[in-house]
Amino acid sequence: MTIDGDTAKLLAFMDSHGIDASAQVSRGWASIGAIIVDASLQRRQNYAATVKPRVDALVVAWPDAKTTSGFRKRLATGTLSEVIDWPSPGRLAQIDDLTCVFEDQGIETVEELRATLTDPATRPVFREALAGVRHVSPKTLDYIDSLSGLATGDAIDVRIRRVAEAAGIEGTSYANMSAVIRAAADSRGWRAGDLDAALWHFRVEGAPESST
Predict the structure, then answer these.
(1) pTM of the predicted structure, to 2 decimals
(2) Tens place of pLDDT for every residue, the chain, 212 residues?
């Protein structure tokens, strides 16, 4: 099936189920610490049950983690695992490594993060640095766009693939679905990030609560 054919299937499914992507929806956080923790925990985890409650706890317990320097000071206390109730050292190491990238790139606030991601000169440099961190995939890079509040990107996960499968799309690879979402958004005058969010929030009937 071509991109155009898959795009038509997705749009037909959305129309038949009343899925509206015209509203501007943000999936982001106003805290650098929250963005880094969310991006690190989301891999192969149930978002509603596992990831979001832990990020919410971080935001409440560490309000000064809104900035990269504030987050670093909190990390230095060695109490992150208790704050987010996460003992596994692998994810904690990834959080530290991502924080180092933010520091090296001079990104202190979410506003500066968005500016870096929307500047054609700095975006590829920053994303290349992030990609050097273990377990940071193309999906994670696009997910950080969404977490920063940008609506220009998409992050294809299990939830979106289930919608695609329900729409009759067979090719649910990251590359194909990213192209389909962008084509569908362009055809309706939507922002790709808003379409991504609308699909992510839609619950496929009969499907279990999915992980990211």
Answers:
(1) 0.74
(2) 688 999 999 999 999 999 988 876 656 899 999 999 999 998 888 888 899 999 999 999 999 999 999 999 999 999 999 999 999 899 999 999 999 999 999 999 999 999 999 999 999 999 999 999 999 998 899 889 989 988 666 567 788 888 999 999 999 888 888 889 889 989 998 888 788 878 877 877 655 444 45
Of 26, 80, 81, 27, whose CA–CA distance to 212 is shortest? 27
Beta-carbon-side half-sphere exposure of residue 146 (alpha carbons within 13 Å): 25
CATH of the domain spanning 32-147, picked from 1.10.1760, 3.40.50, 3.30.70, 1.10.340: 1.10.340
